[in-house]
């Protein structure tokens, strides 16, 4: 990919392509940009229409990291933005609607994070999320066990669940819902997290206190708050390796026997997309959205 290039009619300057972002693997910024360009067809539908927050790590995961929600200085005029209500007033955030915007944002070296609602309906969630976070010595194997319980419980309420790795230690469950006030979605998710703890007391904790998490899976329901965001599907994470928040099948969840079974780096995800397409496509199908009980 050339440093100065045209993407769908937009001129982009892509900088420092040879810069090594992940020293352990030698993964460069050019490889990061190539990954995003290759994964764009699957990634963009999960970003489109949602105000995006960036976790930037321009010098790689070992360098400085900072979370950015506001439109950064120097943003091209053709990048679409949206007004977003906040507790301290209205602000503007980026909308990643197309490939040129994705590549411009990826050149900043960023993780992509989105809320559970769309910019045209702030605070009305069209999906529910659980972030399953293991406390050592628990790992993603235990997260998968909890995910299976939650999937069955959600199904009893007529809700479909989809799974993806967090790209770190845990697992995300995503549920398409008919647009509903975030407060109601949050309350429902908290109730299910409590049920999971009651059903699996030796395995699950629903409270955030770290001293409760040892050897258990924290079922984090808080990201359903209108003010919170979750790492987007297919985003590369700022970890030791260029791991990706990768969609997985329920067969893979049920068959997970060790932490390494569900670790996917950028190259793995490209191969999976070629083989399987977007395993989260159902999340985007409004016909699959369920009503909360």
UniProtKB/TrEMBL annotation:
Classification via Gene3D superfamilies: DNA primase, PRIM domain
Keyword Zinc-finger: no
Domain DNA ligase D polymerase: residue ranges: 28-279
InterPro entries in UniProt: LigD_pol_dom (IPR014145), MtLigD_Pol-like (IPR033649), NHEJ_LigD (IPR052171)
Pfam families the record matches: LigD_Prim-Pol
GO molecular-function terms, A-Z: DNA ligase (ATP) activity
UniProt keyword annotations, A-Z: Ligase
This protein's record includes keyword Ligase: yes
Name by which UniProt lists this protein: Non-homologous end-joining DNA ligase
Organism the protein comes from: Streptomyces endophyticus
